[in-house]
## 1
Amino acid sequence: MTKYAKDEFDQVPQNTSRQGVHRDAQETTRPTLWPVLTVGAVALVLGLVAFLVLPNLGVVAPNAAPSVSTPAPQQTGSSPSAAPSESSSAPSASSEPTPSESPSATPSSAPVDKSIPVAVYNGAGTAGLAGRVAGLVEADGWTLSTVGNWGGLPQQTSVIFYNAPEQKVNAEALGTLLGIQTILESPEVQQQLVVVAGPGYQ
């Protein structure tokens, strides 16, 4: 084993009170923590007091009062606006049926006038068809004017013509009697009521 000569670093005192240089720095920092903890505790107490005590003293109450009172005028303003809308719709509904009832009652109340002369024509080319239809019309109490063959445009079906609006009731009565559903207003027709028995008339 190699032995070296002792130098100044090998001479370490056996008894020394020094434990390390870092211990002095720790002892100096301990007193500085207490002021920081004291300030934090005071701030925490002030925060709790402001959160719990100030609302009970009525500090927030004035801000809540106007917010509750604002919706009240809005509700009162909406109620009168609904009232005129309902009242305005009521007269419009009541005024509509009155004019519609008056014209519907006039045609139904007009009586059938069988004294109006009725012209009967054969538009199918069947022999004796106009005479047979004229017999039905005369038997029902109507007055006949002309009985013959149809000289106008060819008809695809049986038609009853009337030349004035007041003759519509009479034309409808003839249509019910003869079973003719096609009823037309034609001012060009010279007779007031014209019955054309077309093809297929039974």
Note: The longest helix spans residues 71-95.
## 2
Amino acid sequence: MGDVNESAVKRKLGIPNWRNLSKDKVLKFAAAMPEMATEVRLKLIEQFPAFKDLGKADIDAVTEAHKSTLAANENSQNDFYKASQDQRDALQADLGRDDLSWAQREALHDRLDQNLRQVSEKDSENKQFLGAGMKMVAAAGAAALGLGVVFVGGKLAGASQDGSEESP
């Protein structure tokens, strides 16, 4: 399938010229690289040397967004835990009163139990959120690594087909 030329690649990507290669089309471009002739592949890569920088910019953007999300999440968690602790403190103070009936004490204990369950549920929810965030960052990193492998693999394949590597 090494007979795919530059025009065919642009048609496949739906772009009139390489300036129209958007970030979302880079992955399609990388996937099409194995179908290209080595000369075409190298020629195309030379036309936009910022190929590597494009992937790095995406990773940087994902990383920054993830950091911002983690900071907002931490603030939200801290606010929730503070409010929960304030409620427990108030309930504990109420339980210290001598004028409460057994039913009132039981109701306060139930509210303490409910508060602790909510904290536990929030903790589990937060751990799932953080796990999903890590998966997203890992996927972005894997995509960047994949693009790098395609890029380097394309150059190496071109070099070996051109006979520029030394034979043993």
Note: Residues 155-159, 164-168 have pLDDT under 50 and may be disordered.
## 3
Amino acid sequence: MVTKIYTKVGKFYSMAYLGLVALGFAANAIIWIMIARNNTAGNEISFTTIFFLAIATFVTVATIVGIFKEKVWAKWITIAIFSWYIFGITQTIISVYLSGSSVISRTSFKVIHLIALILPVLGIVLLLQKPKTNVSS
């Protein structure tokens, strides 16, 4: 008998979120490769950026496969990815307010970043829920 690690909603949500993350990483890597190939940015292109994006895409896709196969390591990598986004969004919010720069609309800035902050928090909550066990009597 295979023990369930994920709830159905948590599994679907994580796979969908990570799919979008992998798509974003891959698209960003392709854009950087095109910039480097066309020499648009001069000598400012670093192989490190492209390498990081390629590795991040690979890890994200491997995590999606791990979630599909009910692996525990995939759950922890997913929580780490969600946490990475939470810290990044929090850092953006703090840096904008501390810099004192005028954002186009502070209300829209707050709403967009609040939504962006809620999505990974929801993912962590869904991942930490225990799946229901089928008890037949």
Note: DSSP finds four helices and no strands in the chain.
